[in-house]
């Protein structure tokens, strides 16, 4: 009996939310790879609720060249049949429509119903955990691979942690890693307004996340050598020359989800029809990863920078719990963030003048036997991930590289399910592809401490 032919699709990839501010930068990044001889991205469509704006953004993204002939498909999260029709025509959906707690689930539901793969740039823990709880089994059965946080939230943290962990070679063992995010600019730093809106709504609905976690079975927890370390809210990180403030970020949650998945699958996730080469690489890669306690802090060169972040957090924490306060926060982001976020977004000059560095400072033991009891770590390793502006340059780079890998290496990835990006892409060549496109991974230093 002849093998069943694979389904025919009109498109390899659809960018949904292409009429949004982030979406236009994703279009520009995708055009760099469309129909490149070595790239599996051969056909592309753009989708959203405002076709005329999408056409405008396509022309902007292609400038100074004439925009290519790319289909524009009307679709809206409030019109589920339009989402189903869209998903049936493509292998992969890239979802750029946020806040995801408001607009994300219908897109996931349509992808799962049609067996379409899905990536997004979400950094909202409640959305990601709720989608995993409600759609994991259905996605696995349908063969739909659903992966959130494929942008600055949270691939630099995930891939940076994996890169860092592999520098702890036995008999050394890792205990904890603190990541310090430093945003820099030659002009001024203007944050992604979607991040601000998600933060406001996340604080307003914090109780929902708490109840969600109470209702779920506890995930497997990795065994981490040595004592659990809880750092302070504010830190003077002398070796990096930074003042740092602990962040309730999605990054730490996403990394923990990958470590939980790794604890349940010590050699990673088997591909649906993986090559022998990838199987060997996967089975070598994942046992080399050492789990650790992980936290994220925002780093600033002066204490005034920390104060600015604290003031923004204070206003959000104070006002987000009430409907009137949320309206104020969302109506006047520039006022309540001291100019850090604004509705109209950054200028091109502000985007291209901004960069980030994410420092990973790991503490552990030169020999695993030293971790017994309450002994203090005696070894420190520092690594770094760095790149261009986080919301409109780094995020599209990451999203498109994840998409290219999914399209070109689909047989090496899980058949379906809902996962964080680290456990899906960790054993692929994502780090190398990011490095080739401007997101750098560097070993910085290693030092030992005298044991007292």
Automatic annotation (TrEMBL):
Family annotation (InterPro entries): NAD(P)-bd_dom_sf, Saccharopine_DH-like_oxidrdct, Sacchrp_dh_NADP-bd
One annotated GO biological process: glycolipid biosynthetic process
Transmembrane segments: 305-324
Gene Ontology cellular component annotations, sorted alphabetically: lipid droplet; mitochondrion; plasma membrane
Superkingdom in the source lineage: Eukaryota
Keyword line: Membrane, Transmembrane, Transmembrane helix
Saccharopine dehydrogenase NADP binding domain location: 14-147
SUPFAM superfamilies membership: NAD(P)-binding Rossmann-fold domains
UniProt record similarity statement: Belongs to the saccharopine dehydrogenase family.
PANTHER family in the cross-refs: SACCHAROPINE DEHYDROGENASE-LIKE OXIDOREDUCTASE (PTHR12286)
Protein name: Saccharopine dehydrogenase NADP binding domain-containing protein
Organism for this UniProt entry: Vanilla planifolia (Vanilla)
């Amino acid at each position: 009996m002849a093998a069943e032919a694979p389904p025919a699709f009109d498109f390899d990839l659809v960018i949904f939310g292409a009429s949004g501010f982030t979406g236009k930068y994703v279009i520009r990044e995708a055009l760099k790879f469309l129909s490149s001889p070595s790239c599996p991205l051969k056909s592309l469509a753009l989708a959203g609720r405002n076709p005329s704006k999408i056409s405008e953004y396509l022309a902007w993204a292609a400038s100074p060249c004439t925009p290519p002939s790319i289909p524009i498909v009307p679709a809206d999260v409030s019109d589920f049949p339009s989402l189903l029709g869209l998903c049936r025509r493509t292998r992969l959906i890239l979802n750029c429509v946020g806040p995801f707690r408001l607009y994300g689930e219908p897109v996931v539901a349509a992808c799962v119903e049609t067996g379409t793969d899905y990536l997004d740039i979400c950094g909202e823990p409640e959305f990601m955990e709720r989608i995993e709880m409600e759609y994991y089994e259905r996605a696995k059965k349908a063969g739909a691979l659903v992966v959130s946080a494929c942008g600055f939230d949270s691939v630099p943290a995930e891939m940076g942690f994996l890169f860092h962990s592999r520098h702890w070679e036995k008999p050394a063992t890792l205990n904890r890693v603190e990541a310090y995010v430093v945003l820099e600019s030659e002009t001024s730093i203007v944050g992604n307004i979607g991040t601000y809106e998600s933060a406001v709504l996340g604080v307003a609905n914090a109780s929902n996340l708490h109840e969600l976690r109470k209702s779920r079975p506890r995930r497997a927890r990795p065994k981490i050598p040595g004592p659990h370390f809880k750092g302070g809210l504010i830190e003077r990180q002398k070796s990096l020359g930074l003042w740092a403030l602990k962040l309730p970020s999605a990054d730490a949650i996403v990394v923990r989800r990958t470590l939980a998945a790794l604890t349940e699958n010590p050699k990673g996730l088997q591909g649906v029809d993986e090559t022998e080469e990838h199987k060997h690489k996967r089975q070598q890669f994942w046992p080399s990863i050492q789990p650790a306690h992980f936290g994220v802090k925002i780093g600033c060169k002066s204490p005034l920078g920390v104060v600015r972040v604290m003031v923004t957090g204070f206003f959000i924490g104070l006002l987000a719990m009430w409907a009137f306060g949320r309206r104020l926060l969302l109506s006047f982001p520039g006022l309540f963030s001291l100019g850090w976020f604004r509705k109209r977004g950054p200028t091109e000059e502000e985007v291209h003048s901004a960069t980030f560095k994410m420092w990973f400072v790991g503490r552990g033991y030169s020999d695993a036997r030293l971790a017994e009891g309450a002994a203090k770590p005696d070894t420190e390793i520092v690594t770094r991930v760095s790149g261009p502006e986080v919301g409109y340059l780094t995020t599209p780079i990451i999203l498109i590289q994840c998409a290219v890998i999914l399209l070109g290496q689909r047989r090496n990835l899980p058949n379906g399910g809902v996962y964080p990006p680290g456990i899906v892409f960790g054993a692929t060549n994502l780090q190398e592809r990011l490095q080739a496109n401007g997101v750098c991974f560097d070993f910085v230093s290693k030092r030992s401490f005298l044991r007292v």
